[in-house]
Write a structure and sequence with these properties.
The protein has about 70 residues and is mainly α. The chain contains 5 helices and no strands. It starts with a helix and ends with a helix.
C-alpha cells in the first residue's frame, strides 16, 4: 500500500468512526476547531492530517489510534 492509498484509507476510517458516533462533519470540525472544509479534505485524502490532530480526533471520538490506522 503506497502513501496515497494509506491517506485514502485513513480518511475513510475517520469518516466511518465519525458516522459511528452520529456526528456530522460540521459537529466534529467544531470540536476540533477546524473548518468543515478542512475535515472534508482530510476524509477524502485531499489534505494530510497531523499526528496531533489524529490524537485529538481519537480523543473526541473515544477510539484508540490503532483503529484509524487499520488498513
Amino acid at each position: 500500500m503506497n502513501e496515497v492509498e494509506k491517506n485514502i484509507a485513513l480518511g475513510k476510517n475517520i469518516a466511518k468512526e465519525r458516522k459511528n458516533k452520529n456526528l456530522s462533519q460540521n459537529q466534529l470540525a467544531d470540536m476540533l476547531n477546524i473548518s468543515r472544509e478542512h475535515l472534508a479534505k482530510i476524509e477524502t485524502a485531499k489534505r494530510g492530517v497531523s499526528i496531533n490532530l489524529v490524537f485529538k480526533i481519537c480523543e473526541i471520538l473515544d477510539i484508540n489510534e490503532s483503529e484509524l490506522f487499520t488498513f
